[in-house]
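Researcher: Structure for this, please.
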Amino acid sequence: MALAYPVAPGPPLLPAGPGAPDEALAGVLGRTRLALLHALDVARTTTGLARRIGVSAATASAHASALRAAGLVTTTRTGRSVHHTRTALAELLLGGGAADGRGAADGP
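Model: Predicted structure, token format:
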């Protein structure tokens, strides 16, 4: 005997309730890394990230490095500046887009 069920397209269902997805992600990533991902609603420098989430530049850099290794952040250097941005995977985890790069409002 076998049990089969159709697989829905897209990410698995997120936990229900206000704040539930953030709580679940904080449990996996940690609150500081989650705050860093949220702060990357626009590209930011390491210093800008540190100020935004209230940590030292070294701490922000270490967290950005860990998130980069996990494929959630990209980092580009322009001269002496380093800018961090969220990846499509990070957007998906935060609930702001689809895996194919389309936002929720774009539809199928």
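Researcher: Any notable elements?
Model: The longest strand covers residues 73-78. The two ends are 35 Å apart (CA to CA).
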